[in-house]
Amino acid sequence: MELTAYRERFPIVSHSTYLISHSLGPMPAEAERRVLEYTSSWSTRGIRAWSEGWWELPLTVGDQIGRLMGAPSGTTVMHQNVTVAEAVVLSCFDLRGERNRIVYEEENFPSVRYLQQAQRGAEIVVCRDEEQIVEAIDERTLLVPITHVIFKTGRIQDIEPIIRRAHEVGAYVVLDAYQSLGTVPLDVTELEVDFAVGGSVKWLCGGPGAGWLYVRPDLIERLEPTLVGWQAHKRPFDFAPELEYAQGVARFLTGTPNVPALYAATAGYDIVEEIGVERIRERSIPQTELLAGLLDEAGFEVVSPRDPSRRGGSVVVRTPDFQRAHAELEARDILCDFRPDVGLRIGPHFFNTDEEIELIVSSIREIVGRGATEPAPADTR
Ligand SMILES: Cc1ncc(COP(=O)(O)O)c(C=O)c1O
């Protein structure tokens, strides 16, 4: 099946130039049907719905996420978002000992940074890039939360040396793969990474409320998270007074799962799984190549890496007055976004056409060009 044939599955694509899958992937029509399936099971099956699939959703949906990144079944669970998933990881460790250092990079997503900074007893070491991280990891390092694809620039990080160094000294790496899963192939088993986290709103087209956490198989039974709830209990329906950890990855769960979000999310995962992330990447590289080339020709500064093997699914470009350009593009139903200190972010996905990429660049050119020729407002100071 041609990739552009998938356009039919995303209603918004028929009337918008949707180039913002790095931020909010479009809703598959099927997601609406699945939400109705959820309301129908609630309405017709009532309490029985828990034993007919609802309770298990964080594990069954987690297994599907696992398949997209080379994780064996029983290693991935669903949470509300990355922040919660990272908090569960943090809760497995004691920061009161000698080993209390958290080495992370300044380009981690703010939510992740805030959570790490807020940990009592942690000694935080902030690094500029992967070389600095490798240098900073030492025997006192406990955790190394890093990002696969940097959200502000779309740069793919060289994560193998970080994982290697961390393992040499007995530290654990938490990989945030939010900006890669669904567009850049990732194999957590091959990487031997300790934990991986992400969510569904971007390249997976799964909507909000469906974050995920992967735990390396041999760590699962060794760790005891303190951020737990009854889904993490061995026999939750005994309502026992004492905690007994569940066997397997369920011990990384908390309380009642986010059922509607998990129903909605799998519609996008199914499409990504059907196409395959390798094939999506094969299409993404020429798309971002075309985009970067046209932006270059227009004389704008492309902030994302020029080397396609180091560039994720989005292209970030600094243009004069990019906030106004963004507002005008949105008014024309051409959707992208911007980050204050870097510029416009444009994220084509498998369903986008080359014409759409050409349209956004010619529109930016026209908007920015017109702005430059406008007379400057009178200085009334
Ligand atoms: C790399 C990365 N990590 C995390 C997040 C979001 O974290 P959370 O799921 O906690 O909202 C984003 C963007 O929303 C992101 O780009």
List keywords for this structure.
4-stranded antiparallel beta sheet, 7-stranded mixed beta sheet, single chain, 381 residues, binds pyridoxal-5'-phosphate, disordered C terminus, alpha/beta, 13 strands
Q: In summary, what is this structure?
A:
Helix content is 36%, strand content 14%. With 381 residues, the chain is an alpha/beta fold. The strands form three sheets. The protein has a seven-stranded mixed sheet, with helices on both faces. A four-stranded antiparallel sheet has the order 9-10-13-12. A two-stranded parallel sheet has the order 1-11.
* Main sheet specs: 7 strands, mixed
Following the backbone from N to C, one meets helices and strands in this order, namely: EHHEHEHEHEHEHEEHHHEEHEEEH
Structural class: alpha/beta
Outline type? globular
Percent strand equals 5-15%
Query: How many helical stretches?
Result: 12
Q: Give the N-to-C terminal Cα separation.
A: 62 Å
Question: Could you tell me the mean pLDDT?
Answer: 95
Write out the strand line-up for the largest beta sheet, numbering strands in chain order.
2-8-7-6-5-3-4
Number of DSSP-assigned strands: 13
Radius of gyration: 22 Å
Q: Which molecules other than protein and nucleic acid are bound?
A: pyridoxal-5'-phosphate
Helix share, percent: 25-40%
* Uncertain segments: 373-381
